[in-house]
């Protein structure tokens, strides 16, 4: 059993692994061997990965796949996707091809405003605080000049600082609510540095403000941090085509397909239990591209789900409608992404993913990511309202089991055909493979 450990971070990587194996691995040699199998032979590359986080003991691989044939605003893309779930890349590729033949995806960035807040407690007269804020606002802006100089040169920077009275929500709670334009950077470091500076200046200025009583001078900054909720950093993507071109399923007419599709999305909009799964399918596409391009998928997830609940109920992120004879399917989501800074400058596979995407700026990447989400959603809903999703999943499930059983290429071909019309269970596949191998001698 594990015991508390002191000074763990100071141990070398080898020492950490030894500690781990002594405390946790039944078969120490095997455990250590697995960890080391995933080390990169290129020591410099391994060191790069070691230094991304703390206490690194190995690398955790995710497959990087590509989905070609994405026509977005008349430009053809191959989209890199890092994801562990089978069928996602295949579904994206199929949806891409389907829409490529119908004019492709159209996407537009609606706004690019990022947000950060200084959260503070002030117990004095609210009117005096408002006066104080008006007086110090120019000082707050000028205090950031050195920090924002580079960003301003390129057309970004801090775009607004407002005092927000939140005392209705929480006693004595106020904010400096700040807005930023961070161009091709996700901007987390930039925003947080600005906010911490603003917090300092706020307190210094309060201390020196002669209209404040001693108590009022004592503004308590609780924290200064960017918000991952960016409803004004938003992108929209859509596909549309005449209903007659939705010749998708032999058992449904194009018109029934369109109506059923619209109904399925309406259900996700009306029913949170379905909405969560519906949006999860969208996130299959979004997260995979966000990860492949070295962006922060937790930030993206948190922000998007908050947006899905913006009217108080968790709803579908996508919308499907029939207008006259046209089928229109769209998505609108907040996305704070970067194509410079952070991992984008460090991780060789991220750099390669950005090269595959023809070096997008943040706005291009927002469009690509939204399209990947929409494509994934189209593929999932299409399967759900026609064949059901298990057919495709079972094929991949079968391949996973065959891989576990170390099946040869011939065996894979044989069993893919054998299980075509059968239910795939681990037991049945194992049994069938054993019998087949016994027969083959
Ligand atoms: C599975 O990863 C995603 C789906 O469940 C999404 C959906 O139900 O729309 C297929």
Q: Outline the low-pLDDT stretches.
A: none
Strand content: 15-25%
Integer tally of domains: 4
- Report how far the terminal alpha carbons are from each other: 46 Å
The CATH homologous superfamily name of the largest domain equals 3-hydroxy-3-methylglutaryl-coenzyme A Reductase, Chain A, domain 2
Description:
The chain starts with 12 loop residues before the first helix and ends with a helix. The chain has four domains: 8-50, no CATH class; 64-111 and 234-387, 3-hydroxy-3-methylglutaryl-coenzyme A Reductase, Chain A, domain 2 (Alpha-Beta Complex); 114-226, Alpha-Beta Plaits; 393-440. It has a four-stranded antiparallel β-sheet with strand order 3-8-10-9. The chain is of the alpha+beta class and 441 residues long. The longest helix is centred in the last third of the chain and has 24 residues, at 362-385. 49% of the residues lie in helices and 19% in strands. The chain is built from 16 helices and ten strands. The chain is globular. The mean pLDDT is 96. It binds (R)-mevalonate. Residues 85, 277-278, 280-281, 284, 380-381, 384, 389 line the site of (R)-mevalonate.
Q: What's the arrangement of secondary structure elements?
A:
Layout: H1 13-24, H2 28-37, H3 43-50, E1 64-72, E2 75-82, H4 88-100, E3 106-112, E4 114-121, H5 126-142, H6 145-153, E5 157-165, E6 173-181, H7 188-208, H8 214-217, E7 220-227, E8 233-242, H9 254-270, H10 272-292, H11 297-308, E9 318-323, E10 326-334, H12 348-356, H13 362-385, H14 390-404, H15 409-418, H16 426-440
Antiparallel strand pairs: 1-2, 3-8, 4-6, 4-7, 5-6, 8-10, 9-10
Helix pairs in contact: 1-2, 4-13, 5-7, 9-10, 10-11, 10-13, 14-15
